[in-house]
Amino acid sequence: MASRKVTRRVRGIPTSDGAGVKLTRVIGQPKLDSLDPFLLLDEFGSDSANDYISGFPDHPHRGFETVTYMLDGRMRHRDNHGNSGLLESGSVQWMTAGRGIVHSEMPEQDHGLMRGFQLWVNLAAKDKMMQPRYQDIAPDKIPGVQPAAGVTARVVAGELFGVTGPVSGIAIEPVYLDVALQPGAKLSVPLPENHSAFAYVFEGEGVRVGEDTLGLRELGVLSPGGVVELSVAADAPAARVLLVAGRPLNEQVARYGPFVMNTPEQIVQAMQDYQAGRF
Ligand code: CO
After folding, report:
1. φ and ψ at 190, to 5 degrees?
2. How far is the CA of 168 from the centre of ligand 1 (A)?
3. Ligand 1 center to 78 CA (angstroms)
4. With b meaning 16 or more CB within 10 Å and e meaning fewer, what string describes 213-238?
5. What is the per-residue pLDDT for 1?
6. Ligand 1 mean position to 236 CA, how many Å?
7. Distance 183 CA to ligand 1 centre (A)
8. Could you give all domains of the chain from N- to C-terminal order, each with its CATH number?
9. CA 147–ligand 1 middle distance (angstroms)
10. What is the pLDDT of residues 106-117, one digit of tens each?
11. How far is the CA of 228 from the centre of ligand 1 (A)?
12. Entry pTM
């Protein structure tokens, strides 16, 4: 079984979004426009309320999914279909925007650490206009697994050594793992061979991925292969890495802000539908 290699290394760029939330954009920026089916990866993390307090007031989405993984903090989401929920530390929300939602994502704290990720996952042409759907997953519903000495992983989506994550019914068959490695730990992670995949180091100093070492806040795009080898040197600090994979859609992408469709005409339609209140 072929081992995956790092084919590209990317560091995120500092930016802000919403009403001024500071974040690091890792996918969806000039150095890595997208990684089919992934359209965007933002990391946010600050213990200064000024960096997040303004939140993400009402904004639309159509044609894709947003996946919010809260590591620390509390965020309230509300949409125009009457759905609302609280994203707490350790929880995940897999939101399928489908034909359209208008929602807000606002911090429910005025001090302390707010940290996490938002990933955008594209929908296939046939699913872009599906009914919106939420999978709100509480922290204790995300199973942990200890597949090797010094390794613990949270399985958000996909399967790892017989443990299946709670996210279900997603067409790209995602794998979404949060893997923590102690000094000297190593692990071979099986991944569907032809899925697009990336690793992103978000704690520690670095993680060896195949034959390369990714530094802190560095994303590695991975070649196809049935397995990826992760390790941390015995004299390095413990590290944590996000390992994400999904089946590529190989479809035309037309993208404008929060609308991701297949053709420019569909983008115009999305803007018209949004402005007419049809979301
Ligand atoms: Co949003």
Report:
1. -70, 135
2. 20
3. 10
4. bbebbbbbbbeebeebbbbbbeebee
5. 77
6. 37
7. 37
8. 6-275 (2.60.120.10)
9. 34
10. 999 999 999 999
11. 31
12. 0.97
